[in-house]
Write a structure and sequence with these properties.
Layout (H helix, E strand, L loop, with lengths): L29 H4 L2 H5 L3 H22 L3 E6 L12 H13 E7 L5 H13 L4 H22 L3 H19 L6 H8 L2 H21 L1 H4 L9 H8 L9 H11 L3 E5 L9 E5 L13 E6 L2 E7 L16 H7 L66 E2 L8 E2 L18
């Protein structure tokens, strides 16, 4: 158990008056010393090279200082991520400790949502044979669906699927039975990144399979397929509510996201993302994530019996924690409306048919103010068009569409998200 990875950068809430979290990279970084005023006064070619060099240095620093996914860290250690005098965040860490004991951090490279999602889900399969059987069928169905719906030939999907299947088979055959063993398997870029690519394809598959529904939440005139090629399939592209809904629906699990931002009140906000077409009452969340502006990490529920600081999870899987979770846990509350995962670095392509150049982020258009997305200096959209909270304004549609997304908090208009 490591309470904090050595030389790990922290989230510096003092750097931004809005309290946005951004990685506190080493101060001797060449990228940090880059003077963008000088760039404006240079020749275009040299200007472009300086930007590329600065971006490459930032990417190198992130890789060097952040593991793909960390060991578990006690939630109490998050106090160290913020200044002692930052009462808002210090109070929210205390509130987070009420229901959660541990956090597992992920690398802020634009793939953090997918890394957090799949690590938490894989852990939840331990000692849950019913879910293992159900998941095995999901794997078969989605593998066929990706080929049929997305139209990719087998050879462009097989490599990504093989990495995904190897971990899945290892869990089903009891070769991977603990979080430590899972971490050892996934702590390799070639493995984890290929699994992330496959998760992106699964997300794209479901968005296009349910295009009649999701098209209502895409701005502009482009198709849902165009959106997926720009914002879902390429690596390092940030994730939003629409991605969470799609992936939770593919896996047919409920995902609880706990939002911790600079909103007043000293309390974190929770929201459950339930799968579309789910039958019966909403299920208990199987996956828990912490969202701080621009980034997702894995959370571990505090069990009834309590989990002592420093205790590992070899004998206490998230599935067991889920079963032992407090029945009286807080009900979902309103939360920040513009969540996205870490901003893109150098976009990498997946199958050739899916590769495309980055385009402006297309987010869900809420009826009330939502924070700007990373890398964009846009002001929050304050137009409500007279619609009630919980509805989305659909571009080109004369009528509001009922939204599966949460209403925003009162702090939305003042919240922004940084590039990580």
């Amino acid at each position: 158990m490591e309470n904090q990875p050595p030389n790990s950068p922290t989230f510096d809430a003092q750097a931004d008056g809005a309290g946005n979290c951004s990685p506190n990279l080493p101060q001797d970084s060449e990228a940090a010393a880059l003077n963008f005023d000088d760039i404006e006064n240079t020749e275009p070619l040299y200007n472009h090279q300086m930007i590329l060099d600065g971006t490459a240095k930032i990417e190198h620093d992130i890789i060097a200082n952040y593991p793909l996914v960390s060991e578990t860290i006690i939630v109490d250690a998050l106090h160290d991520d913020y200044a002692e005098e930052d009462d808002i965040y210090q109070q929210k860490v205390e509130d987070l400790k009420t229901n959660y004991s541990f956090i597992r951090k992920t690398r802020p490279d634009g793939n953090c949502f997918y890394r957090a999602f799949i690590f938490s889900y894989f852990e939840s399969l331990f000692n849950d044979e019913d879910e293992q059987k159900r998941f095995s069928e999901i794997c078969k169905e989605t593998r066929r669906g990706i080929e049929e719906v997305l139209g990719f030939p087998d050879f462009t999907i097989d490599e990504f699927y093989e990495y995904f299947r190897d971990i899945t088979t290892g869990i089903l055959e009891k070769r991977i039975t603990t979080a430590t063993e899972l971490l050892n398997e996934l702590d390799q870029p070639a493995v984890y990144d290929n699994i992330v690519v496959y998760l992106r394809l699964m997300t794209s598959y479901y968005l296009q399979k349910e295009s009649d529904f999701f098209t209502n939440f895409i701005e502009g005139s482009g198709s849902i397929g165009d959106f997926c090629k720009r914002e879902v399939e390429p690596m390092y592209k940030e994730s939003d509510h629409i991605h969470i809904i799609a992936l939770s629906s593919v896996f047919n699990v409920t995902v609880r996201v706990v939002y911790m931002d600079r909103g007043a009140g000293g309390k974190v906000n929770e929201h459950d993302f339930n799968p579309l077409h789910a039958e019966g009452p909403p299920a208990e969340p199987r996956i828990h994530m912490l969202y701080r502006p621009g980034h997702y990490d894995v959370l571990y529920v505090r069990s009834k019996a309590g989990v002592k600081a420093g205790q590992g999870f070899e004998s206490l899987s998230p599935g067991a924690v889920l079963a032992a979770a407090d029945a009286g846990s807080q009900s979902p509350a309103a939360h920040q409306n513009g969540c996205s995962s870490s901003s893109p670095l150098s976009p990498a392509s997946v199958p050739a048919a899916a590769a495309s150049s980055p385009a402006p982020h297309q987010q869900l258009s809420a009826t009330c103010p939502s924070p700007a997305h990373p890398g964009h200096n846009s002001e929050p959209d304050s137009s409500s068009n007279g619609q009630a909270d919980g509805e989305l304004a659909v571009v080109g549609s004369p009528k509001p569409v009922a939204s599966p997304l949460p209403p925003p908090t009162s702090s939305d208009a003042n919240s922004t998200q940084p590039d990580l």
